[in-house]
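Section 3.1 - Work completed
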Amino acid sequence: AAVIFLTIVSGPTSAKVILLHDGDHGMIKAIRDAIENRGSGLDICLLRFDPTTISEDLRVLREEGYRLVIGPRFSSQAGVLLPLLEDLDIYVISPTVTSSEILGKSWRFVTMSVPDHVQTRIIAKQLSERGIESIFLVVNDDNDPYVNQYISLFKLDFEGTVSAVIEVGRRDRSFERLLEGSPDAYFLVTEGLTAGKITAFLMEKGIDKPVFCCDFADDSQLRLFSHEVLERLTVFGSTAGEAGQIEGLYYTNTYNALLLAEHIFEAFHNDLRRAFTEIAGVTVQGLDGTFTVLDSRYAWKESFGPVTEGGQR
């Protein structure tokens, strides 16, 4: 079974929350900071996602009264979780999942992220305004529900030419396929570690074309790379405000998910069925500004644009 760490804080025993994480530093730090800064009155359990044991792990925690989950990060993980929601009577607030293969499939699942079609439209417009007419689209090979939708939407929105779509693995060390052509820019739909490695590779090869990333890359691992690598990147996202700018997407949206969980328990106590039935239109003052849960189960924030550009946040 997955390793379970319990963090118990003072508060009503019915206000139980699972942080379903995959080791991302930003998610875990957000929960710890919320407890230290706010004295959050929640009983929070940290559960590491393991697709082979998640069903039994959640079943055990459900018997202990845990019914509200914050997480996971990725649509591929959410796809494993989705069939369990009805069976175990659990509810989910994901920091970042955006795939339409997940959202809208269950009223028990909401996200803190803005819809992909909003993101791709804004990014495509900004690339065109920067004179980008051709790109290589580079995507992770292990998050299909998210990546496939993102590719389709971006191709519809981008006025230029997508010269190639290149799949890469998280363990890849060589990216020679990126040299097979000369696009105006590279657009990475990958997590931060892969985005950093690709950018470092292009720099080593003397390629000085712009590198753009979607919010998928805005994680704690991207921050491990040198300032020289980060200077080459423009990362788009919807985080705003000082804390959101410094900590990034996964931290900010996890913190916001916890704030929404607090609101749910304050307004609805332990009646999660009613809370998620009536959640559309709920507005919360988040870490990086006000957000509203839409009827579509996505969140809405006014801000979306470059959050990291030239190494500056």
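Second construct:
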Amino acid sequence: MKNILIPIDGSDGSMRALEKGKEIAQSFDSNVILLHVRPALYVSDYEMNILHQYQLGQYESIANTMILRGQELTNHAQEILDRGLDVFSELDANKVSTVILEGKPAFAIIDYLESKNDEIDLVIMGSQGLTAGKVHQLFIGSVTHKVLNGVKQPILVIK
């Protein structure tokens, strides 16, 4: 097992996946890729029509606000990845890398895995992410479910 992908969102489930990933990576001397998907910022067609009705100065203010919000999301994503890197601090730093993607988590993870063809040998992810409520904890999370059904790589789901 040369390369392991661990998508993380900061949830307890993803932290448990990190611990299991560390154990497996140490056993097989694997490379680890920690991946976080941050929400995409977008403006709908309706919102664009409204924005075009404003003067340029107001539009620039809105654009600047969106740029700042994007930076906040990227900083938050980096904080989550840094927590993941802390788990792997005992491993060779060259064996652990991070990736920040933007979009809907399940689709971004699937697209990433498809782009890597056969480079990823194992995906390790938590059974539930941040959106899981008490009732949903009885089932596998929607992101995990979509990834399980959307890729060919083996996936280890951690409860």
